[in-house]
Amino acid sequence: MSIYIDVKYLNLLSNRLPIFKQKREFLWNFRCPICGDSQKKSTKARGYIHRKDNDLFYKCHNCGVGKSFSNFLKELDVRLHSEYIMERYKTGENKFSNYQEPEFKFETPKFQKIDLNIPCVKDLEDEHFCKQYVKSRNIEVTKYKYLYFAQDFKKWVESLNLDTNYDLIENDPRLVIPFFDKDYNMIAAQGRSLRGKSKLRYVTIKVKENSPKIFGMNTWDENKTTYIVEGPIDSLFVENSLAMAGADLSAYRKMFENIDVVFVYDNEKRNKEIVKKMDRIIANNQKIVIWPRHVIQKDINDMILNNVDVMNIIEHNTYQGLTAKTKLLEFKL
Ligand SMILES: [Zn+2]
User: What is the distance in A from the centroid of ligand 1 to the CA of 248?
Assistant: First the structure.
């Protein structure tokens, strides 16, 4: 169906949608008329109309409602909705109109077979030192499938034929944490040293130059609250999370524009770099976790190893705006 009919009826409806505004082409934002949006803040607007293929869709990031524009309109104004249906019908059926059947491009998802030519941790023998290491970090067995092992990390990286040359040492066994995009193409990989004495604990290599160095894209559900943590291993303990792995988030701000994002930094109040980043997140009015005083471990994995209920703490210590500012001041004490 023509998206322009959707747009026309959205505009007809717009004077009834509080603080309605167009954010960019095919993206509108207003207070959700279904849940009423925030009761405390009348300036909060978490309802979005966005384009998907040749139709408009409604999504509220407060109540989570998601529906086609047609159903959204029907819920708000039955009379206007029947006009809309008529118009869509007429335009689509009348061959004398200048309506043209849109060209649909069906892109088959590329589920590339994951073949890294190195063993997956789940397939290693229980006694294998890499599997033992993974076990020692209390990573759930169901997550072993995301982890691999390279007996000779340098050789494995060379086998990928990358443009960049990495200065790696010979015969260095590493736990390999591949980063996949949504279509399961490997975009980067991190190698965690399995030797106590290694100078470089983590090495991150870029496999695809122009892809963001973000871990967890392949399992990410952007309709749910998204937690952004620091390291890939940490992210294995946090539901629907992505790990930045040293990436500069500001480069990807567009990617997270209409997504409910919560930032989770390490619990390091003495680390000026981290506190500075936290300050910036709060200044941008984004959600952030401020670890409560009784949590003493510095990172998520350490918390897990000490039986801290990380998910529960995260959910109960997510702040934004002024409250986040106050909490950060207390945190720094
Ligand atoms: Zn809502």
Answer: 31
Architecture of domain 111-211: Alpha-Beta Complex (3.90)
> Alpha-carbon distance 195 to 49, whole Å?
51
Ligand 1 centroid – CA 84 distance (Å):
23
Tens of each residue's pLDDT in the chain, 333 residues: 578 899 999 999 999 999 999 988 899 999 999 888 888 888 889 999 999 888 899 999 888 888 999 999 999 998 999 999 888 887 764 434 444 444 444 444 444 446 788 999 999 999 999 999 999 999 999 999 999 999 999 999 999 888 888 889 988 999 999 999 888 889 999 999 998 777 788 999 998 887 788 999 999 998 899 999 999 999 999 999 999 877 666 667 777 888 899 999 999 999 998 999 999 999 989 999 999 999 999 999 999 999 999 999 999 999 999 999 999 999 988
Coil/strand/helix, residue 96: coil
User: How far does residue 235's CA lie from ligand 1's centre (Å)?
Assistant: 28
DSSP state of 124: S
Cα–Cα distance list, 132 to 135, 147, 192, 224 (Å) = 5, 13, 14, 33
Ligand 1 mean position, distance from CA 290 (Å):
26
For the chain, the structural domain boundaries read 3-93, 111-211, 219-333
